[in-house]
Amino acid sequence: MFQKFLAGKTAVVTGSNSGIGLGIAHRLAAAGADVVLNSFTDRDEDHALAERLSREYGVTARYIKADMSKGQECRALITQAGRCDILVNNAGIQHVAAIQDFPVEKWDAIIAINLTSAFHTTAAALPLMRGAGWGRIINVASAHGLTASAYKSAYVAAKHGIVGFSKVTALETAKEPITCNALCPGYVLTPLVEAQIPDTMKEYGLSREEVIQKVMLERQPSKDFVTVEQLGDTTVFLCSDAAAQITGTAISVDGGWTAL
């Protein structure tokens, strides 16, 4: 879809050894960017992912381990990357429980990984972007950054926070060639979501299609999943010159969810 207009740029994508993050990394590499993949593990298969990206797209791709629940490691990720023209804050986890039953350690972990990590990586990346004279920050929020669901208090709070943090970052960089936007996906068909379907079928006695339409996509008017490729292409667009004046926005890719 895109020419290699990002050649010479380096993109750091947090939480990118699977799912949305990996999908975004593929599209950025296809557009010519060198890519730094990240997660909290340090397995041979993590580094193999980076090697495959290098071979497939002819870019430099590396994998750097960093635990996004730890501020020092978030900042060290950017330092080890050496360059960060494009920062995609994607790392995230989820837990579902009523507020009175919500485990404190789960709340703390979700806020740390889904929200606070973006503060640390952004703080470390902005000096590099300013030094290079260009930068793009894309924070992966959610439809839950704009609306809410019961039993997801920590996730909704973190994603609303990411939208607000994106606006502040945009205002602080408004007179510079740096933009910051929040990407707000609806339900995305990732390997993690795919793996939930059989258990949900069994629990409710539903067919696969019924689980998808009546459970997973109940609030998504299009009744179709968002794809990681669509999110990747939206990210690449936000890195283009056409998007140079798009900053401080929450961009919904949610099949109409937040239009309701």
UniProtKB/TrEMBL annotation:
Domain of life according to the entry: Bacteria
Enzyme Commission number(s): 1.1.1.30
Signal peptide range: none
Keywords: Oxidoreductase
Positions of transmembrane segments: none
A Pfam family reported for this protein in Swiss-Prot or TrEMBL: adh_short
InterPro entries to which the protein is assigned, alphabetical: 3-OHbutyrate_DH, NAD(P)-bd_dom_sf, Sc_DH/Rdtase_CS, SDR, SDR_fam
Molecular-function annotations in GO: 3-hydroxybutyrate dehydrogenase activity
PROSITE patterns, sorted: ADH_SHORT
SUPFAM superfamilies per the UniProt record, alphabetical: NAD(P)-binding Rossmann-fold domains
Family stated for the protein in its record: Belongs to the short-chain dehydrogenases/reductases (SDR) family.
UniProt name for this protein: 3-hydroxybutyrate dehydrogenase
Provenance organism: Paracoccus aerius
Biological classification of the source: Bacteria, Pseudomonadati, Pseudomonadota, Alphaproteobacteria, Rhodobacterales
